[in-house]
Amino acid sequence: MTATRSITQKGLLADGRRLLRLALRLDSVVTGVNGLAYLALAGPIDDLLGLDAGPGRVLGAFLLVYAAAVWAISVPARPHRHAVTAVVEANLLWTILSVVAVALGWFSLNTAGGVWAVLQAIVVAGFAALQYTAQRRAR
Fold it and tell me: Would you list the domain boundaries of the chain?
């Protein structure tokens, strides 16, 4: 109980700027690993998820660029408010487009691919919510 109290009162959760930087960096790392996987494993991902290798590689390259941008935004001790807002909005857009892509069959994903896309959307929405909350605490 004491450890939990110190974490929430004095630590990471109490310091909005630290939490925001952590949320941005976690987003960046997860996104970067995902992007690398889409690039390096395009063939196996096609077999596993039904995502064609070409679009998978394009998606992987985009995710790597996005991950680098999110990391860069996290570097200052006080991340720029408008940049963080752009990340939150981009994450929400990704979430919506992922669900729409599955619902409308844009990438002809198989069942595993559809589940994977929805799970990714949930994680990205979680990052957006955490970043939004941390940004509000950092004010």
Answer: 16-138
